[in-house]
Write a structure and sequence with these properties.
With 243 residues, this protein is of the alpha/beta class. 50% of the residues lie in helices and 12% in strands.
Length: 243
C-alpha cells in the first residue's frame, strides 16, 4: 500500500467563507474546552469531521448541533450559508471552470476542486474508488461528476439507490474498462470487492482507523491480481488545520 497526500489552502482571496467558518469553529471548540462544556465538546468531532468533507455536510451537521442545544454564533451560521452558496456556484459552472482554469483559478483552492483536478488530470486513466462518509457530500459530487463525465465513465454506490441499480453499478465498475470512477458513500465500505481499482481517493476520512482500513480493504483483497500489488490511498487535506 502507498499513501499519497494532496493538500489545498483554505485561505484564498475568493473563498474566504470556508476559512472564516474554520476560524469560528476552532474558537468555538477551544471555548468549550476551556469551559469544560461536555455536551458541546461531544459535538466538536462531528462538526470537524463534517467540515472536512463539504460545506453541505457541515451545514447539515451544524443544524443538527443547534437542534441538540449547542450555542452557535450567528456569524458562523451566516458564513456557512455563504460557503455553501460559493460552492454551489462551482457545481453550476464546473464545465467552464475546468475548461478555463486561469480565469477561475480562485475556485481551485477548495476540497471539491482538489478532488476533481486529481481525477481529471492525475488519475484520468486509472480505476478510482471515491469515498465519502456523508450523504450530502455524495449527492454534491454525484451532481458534478454527471456534468463532467459521460454516463459510461462513472458509477455510483450510495444510500438511496435501489438494490438492482447498486448491483448494475458495481458490475459495471468491476467489469467495464470504460467505467473508471466509482463514487461511494459509507455503504460502499462493506461487503464489496473493487480489486479492479488501484486507487482509493478519500474525499473525507473517517476518524476511525478500522473504518479507513475497511475502505482500503475493498481494493486490497486476497484475490487481487499479483501483477498489480500496490493499492494507492489518496488523502485530501487542508493545510494548517486540525486535519
Amino acid at each position: 500500500r502507498e499513501m499519497i497526500a494532496i493538500s489545498y489552502d483554505l485561505d484564498n482571496e475568493r473563498n474566504t467563507y470556508e476559512s472564516l467558518v474554520y476560524e469560528y469553529l476552532s474558537n468555538w471548540i477551544v471555548d468549550n474546552a476551556r469551559k469544560e462544556n461536555e455536551k458541546d465538546q461531544g459535538m466538536s468531532s462531528r462538526l470537524l469531521s463534517a467540515f472536512f468533507s463539504s460545506p453541505w455536510a457541515f451545514s447539515q451537521e451544524l443544524e443538527r448541533a443547534k437542534r441538540l442545544g449547542a450555542i452557535i454564533d450567528d456569524e458562523m451560521s451566516k458564513c456557512t450559508t455563504r460557503w455553501v452558496r460559493f460552492e454551489n456556484t462551482i457545481l453550476e459552472t464546473i464545465v467552464e471552470i475546468i475548461e478555463d482554469p486561469d480565469k477561475y483559478k480562485d475556485y481551485y483552492s477548495t476540497r471539491l476542486m482538489t478532488v476533481l483536478s486529481a481525477l481529471y488530470e492525475d488519475y484520468y486513466d486509472q480505476k478510482v474508488v471515491l469515498f465519502t462518509n456523508y450523504g450530502k457530500t455524495f449527492q454534491a459530487y454525484k451532481k458534478v461528476l454527471e456534468k463532467l463525465f459521460s454516463k459510461d465513465y462513472v458509477s455510483y454506490f450510495g444510500e438511496g439507490l435501489g438494490k438492482d441499480e447498486l448491483e448494475v453499478n458495481a458490475y459495471r465498475f468491476q467489469n467495464e474498462e470504460t467505467c473508471r470512477v466509482m463514487l461511494c458513500d459509507y455503504t460502499g465500505g462493506e461487503g464489496r470487492n473493487f480489486q479492479c481499482a488501484d486507487y482509493v481517493l478519500h474525499i473525507d476520512l473517517p476518524w476511525d482507523a478500522n473504518a479507513i482500513e475497511q475502505r482500503i480493504g475493498r481494493l486490497d483483497r486476497l484475490e487481487r491480481d499479483q501483477a498489480r500489488p500496490v493499492v494507492h490511498s489518496v488523502v485530501i487535506y487542508a493545510k494548517e488545520t486540525f486535519e
